[in-house]
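Project outcomes to date are best conveyed with an example. Our students and postdoctoral researchers have been running inverse folding experiments weekly, and each run begins with a structure described purely in tokens. The record below, which covers 511 residues, was selected by the lab manager from last quarter's runs and is presented without edits.
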């Protein structure tokens, strides 16, 4: 074992990686975790484990009981829902459709040629910051960043002669760890604000949060997290990973005349496509705009949430086609199909992993164990009787821990908002402050949770560059980002709180 490997295996992060990588293959691990959930649900169901919480949407207290998967009904659910769990697994379609387009651009050589053209003499810090920043702002398009920015982050670093796993980690940190931050207001803001307002109304509180409630804070957060993410990448993650010795070796030779011509044609196609999409999306009354009740006006939020996936496919496929034809890589329709076929052949491991990951996540939701854990954690924090800033910090800690088990931001907030939004309001903490504290916690621990929907996909992407990469590799790499984001973001919130700054237009911290 060389000196770099010895250094990598030292310390707390090395221990995390060693222990994590000694776990069974991720597919087998998801099977084992599913079996554990089944067993725990049987015990919880037999003992009548339940919790009660206020549901803002229903306007009443609800009792949630643990549901056993070892009962007749539970066993029927396991067998009857397996196929639907798999085909309805949200990341599955998103990943495969996007990879069809990315596969064409990668197979024809467009991505590699583009990177060679763009990445010469780019300072390391600026490249890291650009990848993290691109990941953060990608959340305006919902989950697209997971399947576009993260694999591109690895390719960009590899193209610059750097460790691809460091690029993947930097992109993952931006996309998922910085999920709530952005320079623009997007669908996530509207969804969380709606839930918070419903919780306030149900508690009889006449207070309304606007969709821009956290905008100022999130703009500053975007800048801060970009810098922190770049520093973690350059000063900790990449040195720890050491020199890359994997199979992926980009070609650093000078571009040929045909390749340069191919890039020009791809750019022409890209510009034409961008103009067409802009006409369809941005003018008042455009085809892809619809009325958004959250802002009381037309917006493209619905398109961003549901229609953007096909647009992303075309964004890569059309320039890839133009480049492939120009350089002679695509000479017939069968060549075009071959590019997509090869992209899908590399996703075989992910499809297998997705099947078992989908079962585990469904079992956890079906048994209500996640909801019981969330409500119990909230009740515990409420019973401590903290006030002011300590209460906000406690709320961040509890929410961050719960986030390891419930990946959906809206699902957790639907449980926590009716409890904490009125409670903190009655302690003179503005609902906008409660919301921003939740968003910090919800984002920061995403990157270390194996129950995150996209975690299996990211592990497969990592294994494309390092076949030995396991859950321990990914968690130990991302733990530094999670800790740094959580601490830095919380400190930023404390400074904001102490200075009494506005979180957004007309949004205060205290009442």
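After processing, the design step wrote out the following sequence:
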């Amino acid at each position: 074992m060389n000196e770099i490997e010895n250094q990598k295996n030292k310390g707390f992060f090395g221990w995390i990686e060693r222990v994590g990588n000694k776990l069974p293959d991720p597919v087998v691990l998801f099977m084992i975790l599913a079996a554990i959930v089944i067993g725990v649900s049987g015990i919880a169901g037999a003992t009548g484990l339940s919790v009660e919480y206020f549901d803002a949407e229903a306007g009443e207290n609800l009792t949630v009981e643990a549901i056993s998967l070892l009962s007749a009904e539970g066993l029927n659910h396991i067998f009857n829902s397996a196929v639907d769990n798999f085909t309805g697994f949200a990341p599955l379609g998103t990943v495969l459709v996007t990879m069809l387009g990315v596969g064409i651009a990668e197979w024809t050589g467009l991505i590699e040629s583009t990177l060679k053209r763009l990445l010469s003499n780019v300072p390391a810090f600026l490249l890291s910051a650009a990848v993290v920043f691109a990941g953060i702002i990608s959340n305006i398009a919902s989950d697209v960043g997971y399947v576009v920015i993260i694999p591109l982050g690895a390719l960009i670093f590899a193209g610059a002669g750097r460790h691809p796993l460091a690029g993947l980690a930097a992109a993952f940190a931006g996309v998922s760890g910085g999920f709530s931050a952005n320079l623009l207001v997007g669908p996530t803001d509207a969804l969380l604000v709606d839930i918070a307002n419903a919780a306030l109304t149900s508690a009889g509180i006449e207070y309304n949060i606007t969709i821009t409630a956290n905008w100022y804070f999130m703009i500053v957060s975007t800048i801060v997290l970009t810098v922190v993410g770049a520093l973690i990448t350059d000063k900790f993650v990449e040195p720890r990973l050491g020199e890359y010795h994997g199979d992926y070796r980009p070609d650093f030779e000078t571009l040929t005349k045909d390749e340069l011509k191919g890039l020009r044609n791809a750019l022409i196609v890209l510009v034409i496509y961008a103009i067409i999409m802009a006409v369809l999306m941005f003018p008042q009354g455009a085809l892809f705009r619809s009325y958004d009740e959250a802002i009381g006006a037309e917006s493209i939020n619905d398109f961003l949430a549901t229609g953007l996936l096909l647009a992303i496919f075309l964004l890569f496929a059309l320039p890839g086609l133009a480049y492939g034809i120009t350089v002679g890589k695509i000479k017939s329709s069968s060549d075009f199909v071959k590019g997509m076929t090869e992209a899908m052949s590399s996703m075989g491991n992910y499809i297998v992993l997705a099947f078992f990951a989908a079962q585990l996540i469904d079992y956890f939701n079906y048994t209500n164990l996640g909801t019981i854990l969330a409500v119990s954690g909230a009740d515990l924090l409420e019973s401590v009787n903290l006030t002011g800033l300590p209460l906000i910090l406690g709320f961040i800690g509890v929410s961050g821990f719960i986030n390891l088990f419930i990946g959906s931001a809206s699902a957790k907030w639907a449980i926590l908002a009716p409890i904490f939004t009125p409670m903190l309001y009655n302690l003179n903490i503005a609902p906008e402050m409660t919301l921003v504290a939740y968003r910090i916690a919800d984002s920061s621990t995403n990157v270390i949770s194996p129950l995150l929907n996209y975690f299996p996909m990211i592990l497969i992407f990592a294994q494309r560059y390092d076949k030995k990469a396991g859950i321990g590799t990914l968690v130990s790499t991302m733990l530094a980002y999670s800790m740094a984001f959580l601490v830095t973001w919380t400190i930023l919130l404390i400074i904001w709180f102490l200075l009494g700054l506005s979180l957004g237009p007309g949004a205060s911290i205290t009442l």
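The chain has 21 helices and four strands. The longest strand covers residues 50-55. The training component of this project remains on track.
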